[in-house]
Each structure stands twice: as structure tokens, then as C-alpha cells.
Specification:
By secondary structure, the chain is mainly beta. The chain contains six helices and 16 strands.
Length: about 325
Amino acid sequence: MILAALFFISPLFAAEDLTAINELENKLPDFTIEKQSDEDIKYQRQNRRYTPPYYITTLDQIKNSSVEFGVLKQGSSLRNIETNEIQKTLEMKYVKYFSIEDEKGFKYLQNKDGSVTWKVPTRFIDPLKNELTMYVPPDKYTPAPKNIVRTIYDKDLKILPEFSLYVGLVQGEFMKDLFEDKRALMGTSNQYGVQFFTNWNLPLKAGVAVHYEKASYPLEAGGNVFYSSTSFGPQLKTKDFDFFGSPLRFQTQLRIGPFAKASAETIYGKGSFKFNSTDLLISMERPFKNDWGEFVLGFYSQAQWLSLVDQKVNVSLNASNAINRSYGFSISQVFQ
């Protein structure tokens, strides 16, 4: 009975058309895994618990990728892509390789002529990308000053001596008034100075200054007024500032001169006077390093107030607060 049933049903299956099923099967992706070498299987067993699916990467796709630099480790296994021959490297080598690896984790090495002969597992290559990255300047930055004044803590307090020469012109308002002579308004002045100041790292350096000044004022009668004074007082120096890559500093002095005097031969006869002087000097300095310490060039401005002392002859002064002003240049040597 069963044999009879199979006899009648079998023609029905033989006549069924399976073409659509076969076409659908051909369109499905191929997940066939190529045969792997013993070394690849051993590596996968040690590092993976399963074999992930992958897609085939062609040699043309690899050769069209970018080329990178790397170091091939000693003892690396090179495999010939044509003969599948394996060769061990005896020493470390610098190589060029394509950035894309194939589905089995191999990097392909580029020969000098651009051809490809060998491939190597990626784990045997150390990339040199970071080491080859050069410095890239920022888009926007502020350049550091050339003259950098470093601040450190003072260990020992040092007093530095400085010898100076000041040369300038004097606008003698007080002398013109005292001698009643318009030509005495303009004169020349020389000052010889010795300064001592502290070499510490505070913004201001304190010190003391001693100056000897000689000035000469012409008179209409043909003579001259000769002024001299020894003065002393405190001084302050600022730290060095950076000015377009050069060090620049400022100095101020306030000196008193109890022994100032002036003498002249005028149309009214010889005259001599004694004064108490107060001098306020401000200067701007540019130091230059040398073998002894610093050579300093400067520009100065000084205001001088004079008051008569021990005066036995009556004089006529329109304004007792008239000021002698001087301007000029200075050169100094600081010994360190």
C-alpha cells in the first residue's frame, strides 16, 4: 500500500520547477573561509575564542591605500605573496607598507620600485607615524620676548658700584635772574658720579649716589659764571624691561648739595655766592653686557633748586623758586 502511494506522488516532485530557489541561493553572500596556515590557526587559538566573519580584500585595494613608515621587528615572518614561502628577518628593518591590511591581518610591504612581494602579520610592525610628525606652528601666537629677565630668590645681598659721566645743556633760569643777564640762561654742565645700588630681584633697586657737578654760563660782558657742587642722596633703579628685544630701565636720584657755589666777574664787579642745592635727576638707561659687568648708555633730565646762604650783599631776585633745568646724555660702567 505504501509503495503504491510513493509511486503516484514521485511524479509530482519531479515536475516541480526549482529555478527561482537556485537564483535566490546564488544571490546570497559567500561566507566561505579560505584554508588557513597552521601558524594563523595557532595565533587565532591563542588570541581569539572564535573566528569572526570577514570579507576578501583584493591586492588592488591594498595597493591603492596610503603608504606608511614602520619598523619591522627582528624575527618577523615574511611571507611571499606568490610562492607562500616564509622567511625570517635577522635584524630590525625600516619598511614602507600599505595602510590597509587583508582579511587575515597581513600588512603588505612596498618595494623601492613600488611593487609588492612580501606580506607580514600586523603585529610584527611598529608604526613610525607619531615619530615622523614634525612641529606644526599654531595659527595664532604671541612671540616670546628676546630679553627674558628671570626672577630667582636672592641668596646673598650684593652692592654694585657704578661710575658715571653726565654731559648736557643747562637752562639756567635761576642764574639769569641772579646775575640779571639774559645770556646766562643757557649753559653747559658736566657731572661725575659714583653710585652704589643693591643687586636684588625686587622691582626697585635701592642705592645711594654722590655727584660732583661743574657748570658754566656765559655773560654778555664776556665773562662766565662758574658753578660747582658736590651733592649726595638716595637713588632708585627699576628692573630691566623688555623693549623690542632690548633691556631698558629707569633711574631717579634726589640729591642735596650743602656746599654749592658760583663765582663770576660781571659789569658790577666780582661776585661769589653760596647755595644749598636740591637736585632731582631722572634717566632712562640701556645696559650692555661686557667683561667687567655692564656698560650703560642713558638720557637724563635734571631739575635743580638753589637757595642762597651766608649772603652779605643784597641781591634782587624776581622769583626765588626759579629752576635750573639740564638735559643730556650719560655713560656708565657697572662693576659686577
